[in-house]
Amino acid sequence: MAGNEDNTTETENKTGESNHSGFQIKDLKLTQNFNALTGVKKRITLVQVRKPGPKEYVRVHSDPNYCLSTAVLDFKEMGETYLVAPDLWESLSNELIPKILYLTINRQKVVRIWPIRLPDEEGKLDDWNQSALEAAGLAKSSWVRVASNRSAGMYETFEAGGDLGDPAWPDMTFQEILDIAFKGKFIDDWDHPALKQLRGEI
């Protein structure tokens, strides 16, 4: 019979007790600062050393303390870059490449090191690296995407059309980030596996 008081409603069971659990869905939604509220701090354990992907928008840290111009040893076949101690630079001068290491972050808050070749002693630089340097400079103040244009022999830079906000940089020093990025990839003696491989000993 319609309107029978014995029927159970959505919020009341047969004993007259409420089925409501004491919470509202709207009150349980995560906020932007959830990690801060719970005291959780994301720990960075891996930092890749490579240029940004062609589909991702990135920023470059604008603080000059978060970049490093240095000499590196590249193993392109394996996609690996090594830092080298200064006292080995002269002996390895034919193998080393001067590069600047920039700290980048994408919209997913993934940080990476972006290595870009620097001009030689005569100030010469190919179009690929020149355009990469220009893209990195723009990325210090804007979100940019960098894609290869093989027909032009250079990188094209695309600036984000919308307001993507400011980057959320990790609370770490550049030294701490480089320690992670180059763990096991700092050459400071002749017995380093990378140099043994270069000499054909392994």
Can you walk through the features of this model?
The chain contains five helices and nine strands; from the N terminus they run ααββββββαββαβα. 17% of the residues lie in helices and 25% in strands. Strands 1, 2, 3, 4, 5, 6 and 9 form a seven-stranded mixed β-sheet that branches. The protein has a two-stranded antiparallel ribbon with strand order 7-8. The protein has one domain. The longest helix is centred in the middle third of the chain and has 12 residues, at 127-138. A hairpin with a 4-residue loop joins β3 and β4. Residues 8-12 have low confidence and may be disordered. The protein is of the alpha+beta class and 202 residues long. 17% of the residues are buried. It is globular.
Poorly predicted runs are 8-12
Mean pLDDT over the full residue set: 88
Q: Report the C-alpha radius of gyration, rounded.
A: 26 Å
Number of helices: 5
Please report which band the strand proportion falls in: under 5%, 5-15%, 15-25%, 25-35%, 35-45% or over 45%.
Answer: 15-25%
In helices, the fraction of residues equals: 10-25%
Structural class: alpha+beta
Query: What does the overall shape look like?
Result: globular
**N-to-C CA distance:** 89 Å
Question: How many DSSP-defined strands?
Answer: 9
Number of domains: 1
Largest beta-sheet details: 7 strands, mixed
Give the H and E element order.
Answer: HHEEEEEEHEEHEH
